[in-house]
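Box 3.1. Reading complex inputs
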Amino acid sequence: MRTILDGNEAAAWVAYRVNEICAIYPITPSSTMGELADQWASEGVPNIWGTVPRVVEMQSEAGAAGAVHGALQTGALTTTFTASQGLLLMIPNMFKIAGELTPAVFHVAARSIAAQALSIFGDHSDVMAVRTTGWAMLCSGSVQEAHDLALIAQSSTLESRIPFIHFFDGFRTSHEVSTIEMLSEDQVRAMIADELVYAHRARALSPDHPVIRGVAQNPDVYFQARETVNPFYDRTSAAVQGAMDRFAALTGRQYRLFDYFGAPDADRAIVMMGSGAGTARETVEYLNERGARVGVVQVHLFRPFSAADLLAALPETVRAIAVLDRTKEPGGAGEPLYQDVVTAFAEAQASGARRTVPAIVGGRYGLSSKEFTPAMVRAVLDNLSATQPKNHFTVGITDDVTHTSLPWDPAFVIEDPERAGCIFYGLGADGTVGANKNSIKIIGETAAGHAQGYFVYDSKKSGSRTVSHLRFGPRPIRSAYLVQRATFIACHQFSFLDKVDMLREATDGSVFLLNSPFGPDEVWDALPGPVQETIVRKRIRLYVIDANAVAAEAGLPGRTNTIMQTCFFALSGVLPADEAVGRIKDAIRKTYGRKGRELIDRNFAAVDQALARLHEVVVPATAAGHALPPTVPADAPAFVRDVTAAMIAGRGDDLPVSALPADGTYPTATSKWEKRNVSDEVPVWLPEVCIQCGNCALVCPHAAIRARYYESAALGSAPEGFASAPLSGRGFPNLRYTLQVAVEDCTGCALCVEACPARSLEAAGVRAINMAPKAPVLERERRNFTYFETLPENKPDDVEASLVRGAQYLTPLFEFSGACAGCGETPYLKALSQLFGDRLLVANATGCSSIYGGNLPTTPWSVNRDGRGPAWANSLFEDNAEFGLGFRLSLDKHHDEAIELLGALDPLLPVGLGREIVDAPQATPSEVDRQRARVERLRAALATLDDRRARRLLTLAEHLVRRSVWIVGGDGWAYDIGYGGLDHVLAAGRNVNILVLDTEVYSNTGGQASKSTPRGAVAKFAAGGKGGRKKDLGLMAVAYGDVYVAQIAMGASPQQTLDALIEAEAYDGPSLVIAYSHCIAHGLDMRQGLSQQKLAVDSGHWPLYRYRPAAGARTRPEFLLESQPPSVPLTAYAYNEIRYRMLRFTNADEAKRLMDLAQQDVLQRQGVYRAMADRYPPAAVRGQGVPGSQVEAPSRVAEPTLAS
Amino acid sequence: MDLFTRYMGLDLRNPFIASASPVSEKLDAIRRLEDAGAAGVVLFSLFEEQVRSETEALERWGTAGADSHGEAASYLPKPDAYDVGPAEYLELIRRAHEAVDIPIFGSLNGVTDEGWTGFAADMQQAGAAGIELNVYYIPTEMYRTGRHVEEQYLDVLRAVRSSVTIPIAMKIAPYFSSIASMAGELDRTGVDALVLFNRFYQPDFDIENRRVVPSVELSRPDEIRLPLMWIAILYGRLRASLAATTGVHGPNEAIKYLMAGADVVMTTSALLREGPSFLNRTVAQMTAWMERKGYSSLKQLRGCMSHESVEDPTAFVRANYIRTLGSHQPTGSW
């Protein structure tokens, strides 16, 4: 049966059907495979034996591998899905599983390994890192192959008893949607011999026929025992080819261990594996049709490596071979496949099997999903024609440092002319990708067509740009690269025209469809000059539609996808328009059929209106539009201008090796240079209504709202329209207050509006800050923000930074991140940066916070006017607590050594300076500042000394200023994969602060359940509802006694949040702060994020507390339960979120059962906390008692907070 | 005592029906209502907007962020697999229908024609003995005339009539210029019962926080008068049954309604406050009262105080109004 699938689903479909247990853990780009397995299991989909596989999520890939090992040892057919670091975590068990000759298949969406940087994209670095484990390695190069070889791998492992890694390229194959022939259940059954399954079961551990496995061996036998497995490896390649042949008999699709494509008398050949082989095959065919004699060997079975089969696959005529590896082995004699091929030929010659050996060179390509195009294939083949082909080359980049790269001709494009190539530029939220997937389904499922879709996302989570590359044609599509010749290009967001050269791939006479607020008669003048010029030069037919207006009129505001999709079908001619519209409507009916007739009608109306409102533009003969604005301002730092700007503009591929730092070190404070303008609506301040409480500035996830007070004289040079108000509070008659919005950086989440407690006296719906269209205020506010930035920074010691009203004045050193609009995590990080930013080191676990915090091109951690700011690093997902502890150890050691040297050098230093430095208090920002001044004096004094110790102290003097170490990560890290390390670091007693941004789910990888996920919520990997109760991480840490623990929720009590962060930092020992972070993965109107946080607290789901260990003057611990007993039922909180409501639709009884249990959890936990609070009462209660809510009435806002 | 009555063509063991309220959200509560003597149960209202907003929320927030970042094609399990809509409600009808012997009425609060007819048909299929159409509509548009409003009621009735075969009751508001005429039109259009009246919940203001706050207050016994009057006036003049709702807090209100001509009385507030035992008690007290007065069946009682049965029908109309006004003498310090 023909269908459209992506590579992950194609592989998972098979894996699920031929296994009994799936142990899963999320990691990009393989997560979808586990998600599907979990979903199918929750829906009761059986495997080929008619039973529903058991799917279990583990705490890490290491845990998954352990569970797999155990399940295999006890006889179940077991699998897992992983990639990259996840695969590395499985290595120890992989050695064991292979050593014990246990049949199993791991399905891997191959991905880069984090080195100088993390990358989620595809290459073979991960699988190559496990090639010594003894696993067979079978590689698929396309979606069809991922489907077919998944089954061949399973069949082969059962027969050979060698475990298999079945891998395919991350993203390029795992995420490509493509027309494939699906296997039938019967075909799957026919490939799996039940007697081999029973043999596996017979080897299982059982007390009925007990054996012992996993013994320890000594020098006498280990070596021999290791060699016992050789016959099994010897038989494996034959087993695989046998399975491939049986598969061919069943399906007609014949695979070989090494598939050769090309001229039978080729003189040059490429050897490679993975998706690039499709591109190479296509190019080889093209060149051979034009007289060349070239070929390509696609390697399917990489391990065990069958040299004989490789030699047999290559024509004898080949005199030069290029072996391409999609990995890098620094310092090696060559990359792995290259080495194997060289060895194969060398051995063949040595043994006399071959008289001559062709020239063999190796090269690297495609690291981290770098494009690999026909032009590069030709460059590789051309290199083989040289007298002395370059060896150890790279292709696809410009290496101007060690000059490894081959040049290639970008103009060499071989797209099949009978094929339609289409490119769509969309905004993440507008449904473009979804609509394109749907179009591919519509076209691909027609009898004749083949379709392919690949989607490129940018690195930001809000306002992100998506580019969809679609191909449709009569023949199978093997092109594993982006569309290079587009007959149809669509721009779904008009503002992209100024930012992206989207007509670069347009062919002569192609169609350009533009979603435009300007009509057919006005649009031309609104186009940038270069766009006009291309349209004229390439005779492009330009069409416009105001899809946003059509969508709004149809009752689908912002959802332009079906409208643009309809226009695509109307213009592209891929299908007859009537048929296409009918199929779009069928798809709409299918999508919304179970969700309501209303949505179907609205979408139908949108489709019909789309055709009526689509217009062709009469293109003038000449171009005269405006010039494109610069990517970054001219006053940006050189690195930002030369390197960052290229990445922002989508020209990062053009950067040569020399442009990039060799060790992965980048400047901070770059997000400010990327004005993304992602929201059409921005907050506008009404000074006359404002009570200057600071709530909006505190909660703004993107630091796009700034508050400052200043001498009124400063207004003299302010631009026209710069808003200000007298500073509220007594005794500051000459001070003005301004709340400034960075409108170009605002993502339009409106959390600020929701947080504003002030209301106009005249109109109750008007607050001190209100959302309004951006266009009318853009220029004014851009000027105002620039001016605002010139106002003097308010210093921490000039304000009461421990109160919300005072903290608003502190400059955020975390700004304009790429986090989702309305993100619940970033306000906490921003607060950290405001409170401690100038002395802050952050160890950041992999996850959302490392992506919005550290993904190029621009990053949000910033600097103050003195150039000081947070220093940030990400190590891994699993080790972050240990990584941060390392920071502390190093800082403490250097501090101690500095003190020692200070003592030794004291006689040579100004009198008393050393003692002053050692004894200096550094509790407050001003004390820290004074210490900095002392250290500067010390540096000056040291510089005059000709003393080895002085030179040494100069390198350590900075450590005499107090440093703040924060270990930051999400609940996936803290509760699951990193818990062991976190627990150890808490126990280690060192002065580190741990901030857990708790979204109760693995947000970054798409919402998989963690141990923080509450009972009754639905999440991926818990599609049937999380059955167990949420882990109480805080209470576990409290049990240590000497760990400072706080649970906070900014939306419920911003003051308690500040109190906890400040106390945690001040505590000279380990601190754990767990912060409720609402998240897009909750299925929540993010605008309600703060009120939802408050409901989380009011319902008792998220009690607020602080546990202060006995320390210093405090002789006994204190437990402050800072939220009231539950005042609303849990459902009043939970059922505002889709994650809870979903279960009611699928399984109402289970939803009720789990919600009842969750309600009991709340009461039980409340009882425990109450008892703790009674047992450890505070010695002195703060004056105002329980901190106020974020929606405090004006009268309750803290009194003037500026220090007098 | 023969308390049998006929409502919308259905024979009921007594005239007490538990009207639409949160009480009927659970199957167990429906069973307890039957045990306590309820002759029928109108389930809590299915609000079309709720179903639609659920659908929209699932679509909007359940797919937010989808297909916009490389690491996550979506953030929640696939909504396609979820059956949104009145499924839960229909399942309750189905299960209640199986669990009890008394008739179960669906209550539908629609917005669109399609909502009314589609959900009504679904309710019939699920086993509802009848449907109560709860037309909760506040015409705020200045261009909308009274006739427009009346037409809307009639349109809804026609649409639902054409989509189901089970009896239809319509719960109406008292804010028509001519209630009798409206009742007559609904009757001619095919309504099987009129439920008098819908109480519109009027929001309150929170002056501290300057917010409009929803305010739901339970009915009081003195609120029976408006429906009482109109039931008495309409009794005997319509084909459709008459159901009294609002203010039934004990046997007295029930007796009054029945005397006015109601075929059934519906109760919510008292049930919410007292639980199912309210029904046992009220039926017993009413029976005792009827015995004391010499009644042997409800038939004798029903309509005995209606417009056409009382000695002085003017008591229901303007003459009474004049007298009533005159009966109020100032008691303050004038």
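In summary: The first helix of chain A runs from residue 7 to 17.
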